[in-house]
Amino acid sequence: MFELNKTLTYQGFVLVVRQIEEFLDTLGKIGYDFLSVLKYLVKFKIKTKEVIEQAKRFAFDSLPISLAIVGMTSTIIAMQLAPELAKQGLSDYTGTLSALVMVRELAVVMSGFAIISMVGSSFASEIASMSVTEQIAAMEVLKVDPIEYLIVPRFIAGTLFMPVVFIIAATFGLVCAGLVSNWCADLSLLNYLTSLWHGLFVRDIFIAILKSSFFGGTIALISSSCGYNTKGGAKEVGLATTKAVVWSFLAIALWDFVFASMFYL
């Protein structure tokens, strides 16, 4: 007798439906937590001590890995870009192109990826562990709102301090690109700095700072929300951390597309 529920087509359909349901459920929870965060921000109910603590994680703990990723990426790009421009007699544009690439995209996106990997995953696993061990439930019994205590400070820290990471990483990346251009294409540092200023626009800098602020707030919100809504045991903690990382990467890609469409299309 033919059994529909055992066919590959049916099982594939069920899998797709479950994935869609999980996606919508996660999106709804993140949206609800964001509204709760806004409520506390409007009322200016902020745990200053917690914000400072989370800011340290965003601005200092993630800085070495951000500098390493941005510096290495800018070095690789300069190694390929500078010699080719020199062959075409366009060495004077090396700094200009480096500035455009670094400020508009490379520094902010790579810093975001570094923060997701180090800080975002930490947020998710930390809060998820608190949830499955009923520490969050204990906070509610003691009349302490977990969102006010756990999510709001992380959201504020991410929004305010990821721009700091971006500025430092972009500066470091431009320095690395200049040194590599001098080594690979014999481009003098003076010529590099001169051409660099032609590619630095105040508009681009402000857009990148705003974009990095959105990235930081989004990473903190998604990571905290995924951890906060975790139920179960140790396995679910791992799944929540993975979900937070995947959703944060996706969110950064979407925000990057939105900003590019709004300001550069």
Low-confidence stretches: none
Number of strands: 0
Q: What share of the residues lie within helices?
A: over 70%
Shape: globular
Q: Output the helix-strand order.
A: HHHHHHHHH
Cα distance spanning the termini: 58 Å
User: Helical stretch count?
Assistant: 9
What does the model show?
- The protein has helices at 8-42, 48-61, 63-87, 94-132, 135-141, 146-185, 189-199, 202-228, 234-263.
- With 265 residues, the protein is mostly helical.
- The model has no long low-confidence stretch (mean pLDDT 88).
Write the layout of secondary structure elements.
Blueprint: H1 8-42, H2 48-61, H3 63-87, H4 94-132, H5 135-141, H6 146-185, H7 189-199, H8 202-228, H9 234-263
Helix pairs in contact: 1-6, 1-8, 2-6, 3-4, 3-6, 4-6, 4-7, 4-8, 4-9, 6-8, 8-9
